[in-house]
């Protein structure tokens, strides 16, 4: 009986230790996962209250837009910081993205409409580039430029967007847009094709109208 | 046995004894039900109860697994869900084929596209769209002689009904002809594609198509 009691006590202590270790491990992993999620600003789709089309929720909203400096199609470095004082729409797109092609005319029209109020669009291409193959790189840049010309993208078109995808949530799908106010704060984000009205509403929010 | 309110059925540890029996264990190896010490309990009476250590040993992993399971996915019950992670296309079969060595042999490769997504066919209608292509590494002992792709189905995005796309949806099959050297070769072939749903597109992706090719 005494032996059994000792063994039972040991088992119970072990159980308690394992339970504590399991809980501590779970808690630690949960905190690490949340931290990692916040660090990469991982975007999520969350069901809206009506339960139909999921709404894009990005941790970048209400936070400073991560700065970047990318080349435009002429090889000139363009930084986000140089647009401080203007409302900016950072639009991630690619030549292979059909929905991007649909929304581009809306962006062109809205840019023309709001440019005088201090609004600009930065079109960041996520098309793959081969920096080690000069001939291929030139061809890829030419394809992007051709597409931009066809779509009348008169705003700055920046290349190599893949190099800044992490701070912008990984960019798992396109088009993805971030709306930045005059102080450099992200005020809204959109994933996928929405509507011209939605985009305009977010531009007005960035302009504080 | 204490039962209050709606706490559900009592938890029993191991197989119950008969109504007139309680557990008794003198050693780890010899548990048995004792017919004379019944306290009306199905398992263990409050008085005179002895614990079956083997049962506890069996019970221990169950308790531990209850704590281990949530540790694998702390955010699994999060109301949010990730977007478009993983592959939109899955290779189905065959996993293994036997062919005549050094002779072109047909093989039908079956794939499945996730519901709600489409991928460009091998011959998209626009130059800027990325075609679906199957390939076999050149340094393997298996050569891809030819690949015949299914025709794409016409598809239009709701907001652009004037632009027709040529796409695959659901399941599709690529008819390949391969030439294998004699022997057993695990080929890591590839399928390159670019997937979209009606509102957004995922970046181009290449998935591995593992096939065990036996050349005889």
Record the SSE blueprint.
The complex is a heterodimer of chains A (209) and B (216).
Chain A: H1 2-39, E1 44-46, E2 55-57, E3 69-71, E4 77-79, E5 87-93, H2 98-114, E6 119-125, H3 134-150, E7 157-158, E8 176-180, E9 186-191, H4 196-206
Helix pairs in contact in A: 2-4
Chain B: E1 22-25, E2 31-34, H1 53-72, E3 89-93, E4 96-99, E5 105-113, E6 118-120, E7 133-135, E8 142-148, E9 153-157, E10 160-168, E11 171-180, E12 183-193, E13 195-196, E14 205-215
Parallel strand pairs in B: 4-14
Antiparallel strand pairs in B: 1-2, 3-5, 5-11, 6-10, 6-13, 7-12, 8-11, 9-10, 12-14
Could you characterize the architecture of this molecule?
- The complex is a heterodimer of chains A (209) and B (216).
- Chain A has 209 residues and is an alpha/beta fold.
- Chain A is built from 4 helices and 9 strands.
- In chain A, helix 2 (98-114) packs across helix 4.
- The longest helix of chain A has 38 residues, at 2-39.
- Residues 36-53 of chain A have low confidence and may be disordered.
- Helix content of chain B is 9%, strand content 40%.
- Chain B is elongated and about 55 Å long.
- The A-B interface holds A 1, 4, 7-8, 11, 14-15, 18-19, 21-23, 25-26, 29-30, 33-34, 37, 42-47, 57, 94-102, 126, 128, 143, 147, 171-175, 191-194 and B 50-51, 53, 56, 60, 63-64, 67-68, 70-71, 74-75, 79-85, 128-130, 157, 159-160, 163, 165, 194, 196-204.
Task: Give the rounded overall mean pLDDT of chain B.
Answer: 74
Q: Tell me, what's the shape of chain A? A: elongated
Overall strand count of chain A = 9
| Widest beta sheet: strand line-up of chain B | 3-5-11-8
Instruction: Name the structural class of chain A.
Output: alpha/beta
The largest pleated sheet of chain B is described as: 4 strands, antiparallel
Tell me the span between the first and last alpha carbons of chain B.
Answer: 69 Å
- The mean pLDDT of chain A is 87
Radius of gyration of chain A: 24 Å
Largest sheet: spatial strand order of chain A: 7-6-5-8-9
What is the element string of chain A, with H for helices and E for strands?
A: HEEEEEHEHEEEH
Total helices of chain B: the number is 1
Which regions of chain B contain 5 or more consecutive residues with pLDDT less than 50? 1-49, 65-83
């Amino acid at each position: 009986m005494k032996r059994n009691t000792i063994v039972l006590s040991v088992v119970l202590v072990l159980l308690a230790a394992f339970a504590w270790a399991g809980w501590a491990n779970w808690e630690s992993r949960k905190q690490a996962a949340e931290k990692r999620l916040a660090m990469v600003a991982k975007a999520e789709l969350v069901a809206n209250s009506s339960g139909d089309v999921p709404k894009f929720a990005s941790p970048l909203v209400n936070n400073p837009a991560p700065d970047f400096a990318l080349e435009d199609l002429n090889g000139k470095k363009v930084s986000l910081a140089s647009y401080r004082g203007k409302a900016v729409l950072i639009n991630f797109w690619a030549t292979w993205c059909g929905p991007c092609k649909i929304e581009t005319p809306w962006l062109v029209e809205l840019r023309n409409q709001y440019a005088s109020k201090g609004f600009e669009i930065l079109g960041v291409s996520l098309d793959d580039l081969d920096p080690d193959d000069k001939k291929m790189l030139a061809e890829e840049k030419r394809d992007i430029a051709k597409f931009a010309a066809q779509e009348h993208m008169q705003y700055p078109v920046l290349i190599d967007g893949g190099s800044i995808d992490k701070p912008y949530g990984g960019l798992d799908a396109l088009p993805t847009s971030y709306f930045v106010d005059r102080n450099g704060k992200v005020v809204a984000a959109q994933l996928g094709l929405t509507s011209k009205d939605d985009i305009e509403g977010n531009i007005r929010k960035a302009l504080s109208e | 046995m204490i039962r209050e309110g709606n706490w559900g059925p009592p938890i029993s540890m191991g197989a119950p004894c008969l109504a007139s029996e309680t557990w008794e264990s003198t050693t780890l190896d010899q548990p048995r039900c004792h017919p004379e010490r019944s306290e009306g309990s199905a398992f263990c009476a409050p008085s005179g109860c002895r614990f079956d250590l083997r049962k506890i040993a069996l019970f221990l992993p169950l308790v531990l697994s209850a704590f281990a399971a949530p540790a694998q996915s702390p955010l699994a019950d999060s109301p949010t869900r990730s977007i478009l992670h993983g592959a939109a296309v899955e290779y189905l079969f065959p996993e293994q084929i036997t062919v005549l060595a050094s002779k072109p042999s047909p093989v039908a490769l079956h794939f499945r596209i996730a519901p709600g997504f489409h991928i460009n066919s091998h011959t998209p209608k626009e130059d800027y769209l990325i075609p679906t292509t199957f390939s076999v590494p050149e340094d393997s002992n298996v050569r891809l002689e030819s690949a015949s792709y299914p025709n794409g189905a016409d598809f239009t995005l709701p907001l652009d009904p004037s632009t027709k796309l040529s796409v695959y949806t659901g399941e599709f099959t690529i008819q390949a002809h391969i030439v294998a050297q004699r022997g057993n070769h695990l080929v890591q072939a590839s399928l390159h594609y670019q997937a979209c749903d009606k509102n957004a597109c995922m970046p181009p992706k290449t998935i591995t198509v593992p096939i065990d090719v036996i050349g005889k």
